[in-house]
Amino acid sequence: MTFLPGLSQPAPPTMVVWNSAMTAYNFGLGHPMAPARLDLTARLARSLGLLDLAHVFVEAPEVASDAELETVHSPEFVAAVRRVSDDPTSPDEARGLGTDDDPAFAGMHDAAARLAGGSLAAASAILDGSALHAVNFGGGLHHAARDRASGFCIYNDSALAVQRLLDGGISRVAYIDVDAHHGDGTESIFWDDPRVLTISLHESGLTLFPGTGFANEIGGPQAEGSAVNVALPSGTGDAGWLRAFHAVVPQLVGAFQPEVIVSQHGCDSHRLDPLAHLNISVDGQREAATAVGNLAARHCEGRWIATGGGGYSVTDVVPRSWSHLIAIAAGRPVPLRTPVPEDWRTYVSDKFGMDTPGLMGDDVELWWRSWEVGFDPNDAVDRTVMATRKAVFPLHGLDPWFD
């Protein structure tokens, strides 16, 4: 077990959702959404000692009931998932079931509903006070819409967690999504709900699925400004990504004053990811998770639910990035130059025949320009940021040029 240095602040009671049954969410051999990503994350987190901390408890998720799923999904869609799950030879492509992205498989309903149940349990733990922070790294399935599966996502667990919080008496929830892909499903579910602020920082839809998520997508007529999109140019690296995050997210969260933050930490923004075109490091992803946790501490009395999401560099990136997420949520961050435990590296080598990184970070120099130093109209990232700020900042009483 790796020694984790203690911190001066009290450790937050932290739930981590995990059980090997979660790997049943399996679209088949060769599909990018390999269930090994979850198993390897749990193994690395345990090797680092994170799951054995006294204030961390591991919760096995239950399969969400139809009534629970129908708080954000239509009854017709849930019934369709059940039908296709029982008979994968009869797909329902109109609802996104049995497509190349979301192949039908036996047991699909229970597998997807179990991941959803994990985020529902996280929300319940926040509501009853048994946890201050909760992590469901098997969740974050943000493309699923009310009536349709999409982009490897059947049920939208993040939206279900947000809805449970609202139904439990929470007045305002901020949803922050840093996946490489636009969080379109979650945004669409709360498009007309001013109680939910959805912020998505992603690669531009001009170059990446799902082709949406531009600055002018700001929410429905009764909820203008509740949807926020930062569509970053292909190739954006740590400096631009973190500049954009810090130029948009803290200001809007501060103005909105949520009671809970729900975040999605897809790590397909990494430079090694095979499906996206951003150039982010594990170090940058860790920095973003730290920033989200700090926002929860500042504005929500610490209440924070973090989910996983995309990420298809299965051995080199996903387990490290999400282990950092767990560590940050647990208040025991793992230093970037911490060696990756040898027992975990040996397991990956034996099972997959692959070498893995030796350190928990990518050993990069993290630096970004603060927005306060000024707007550069010749910089593509700055133009993206300014488009978003102009579209939504005035709707929150903020000045797009100075706040």
UniProtKB/TrEMBL annotation:
MF-aspect GO terms: histone deacetylase activity
SUPFAM superfamilies in the record: Arginase/deacetylase
Protein name listed in UniProt: Acetoin utilization protein AcuC
This protein's UniProt keywords: Acetoin catabolism
Nucleotidyltransferase found in the keyword field: no
GO biological process: one example: acetoin catabolic process
Keyword Phosphoprotein assigned: no
Family as reported in the entry's similarity comment: Belongs to the histone deacetylase family.
Lineage of source species: Bacteria, Bacillati, Actinomycetota, Actinomycetes, Micrococcales
Domain of life the protein comes from: Bacteria
Domain Histone deacetylase: 31-327
InterPro entries: AcuC, HDACs, His_deacetylse_dom, His_deacetylse_dom_sf, Ureohydrolase_dom_sf
Pathway stated in the Swiss-Prot or TrEMBL entry: Ketone degradation; acetoin degradation
